[in-house]
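Entries read sequence, tokenised fold; example below:

***
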Amino acid sequence: MHKQYLMAPGPTPVPEAARLAMARQLIHHRGDGFREVMAKVRADLKWLFETDAEVLMLTSSGTGAFQAAITNFSSQGDTLVAIGGGKFGARWGDIGRAFSMNVVDVEVPWGEAVSPATLRDVLQQNPDTAMVTLTASETSTGVYHPVEELAKVVREHSEALFAVDGITAVGVHEMPMDRWELDILVSGSQKAFGIPPGLGFVAASERAWKVAEKSDHPRYYFDLRREQQRQKDDQTAFTPAISVVLAAREVLQMMRDEGREALLERHRINAEATRAGMAAMGLQLLASCPANSVTAARVPEQLSAPEVVRRMRQEHGITIAGGQAHLRESLIRIGHIGFFEASDIRMVLGALEAVLQELGLDIEVGAGMAAAQEVFLRR
């Protein structure tokens, strides 16, 4: 029997304070007690997103927040430029097509970040673009795209809204919504927030809300105009995931107590140590511009990535992620998003080294741990 550890890029481990909050007696979502919770969570979400805009909470997965962003801030037949490079970047385009939009896919090789020049060229070729979408931290490849530079390109070369999937970027990378002039920023509860799946977050600029007034997409549950009116009154339009909202209050306070700079720096150090450790074991890192949320690495050709994932879980109780689509057989992914410490990184690297050695890979004993330790000591 093994202790179980979540080291995938989501869902992530839930801190004790959040677990205890969810274990308490349920409160009614139309009472004063819940209003107090909503007021605190709303204020803390604005702090985390670095915005004066309302950060709306939806009882949904992050994909629900994607859909809400498209159906509220665009219209049928609009041109949507979807920056690819992985499964989740492509998802924006898939949703756009489902809602009768003219989708222009920007093909980006998996493992690479899109260049601002590429986006500029696409916008010049499609002057009617109404929305540009991006997954800031592409979880399927471990790539971080240059969000700030891309936002400037969108503003300088189009009238389009810039919609950013920050599901594995908010709370991990610098993502100041107002300062970078991001029109739409979405996130989800089961990543950096370290609480169970069930909440999607959507924030929108004043410019985006003006577009929403003309949107002709059909919607009911994901009508953000109605949701905004209710949440400004510390309520929700429909029954929320009450327990998860209570947990959100706890983790947002933990983030506040840690401080934004320290929060991002912890993620950066853990990511750098993980990358150093995996590279020292002879694994080839996939991302040319790596994210601080997850590290993706190719295993040597003679090994099976699914077998590595299976052994990590069965022999060590550690859940890491495999690759997706055409990378399923060759890629493993270790998550370091959420409330992780250096000891967690040391643990997963030690177990990974043992598994790789069992599978016949010639690794110097302790090589991965030593490389990671050097990163932690430099801190």
Summary: Residues 16-257 form a domain with the Aspartate Aminotransferase; domain 2 fold (CATH 3.40.640.10). The chain is about 45% helix and 15% strand. The mean pLDDT is 97. The CA atoms of residues 300 and 361 lie 8 Å apart.
